[in-house]
Amino acid sequence: GAGVSQTPSNKVTEKGKYVELRCDPISGHTALYWYRQSLGQGPEFLIYFQGTGAADDSGLPNDRFFAVRPEGSVSTLKIQRTERGDSAVYLCASSSNGGEAFFGQGTRLTVV
Amino acid sequence: DQQVKQNSPSLSVQEGRISILNCDYTNSMFDYFLWYKKYPAEGPTFLISISSIKDKNEDGRFTVFLNKSAKHLSLHIVPSQPGDSAVYFCAASGTGNQFYFGTGTSLTVIP
Question: What is the pLDDT of residues B41-52, one digit of tens each?
Answer without folding.
Answer: 889 999 999 999
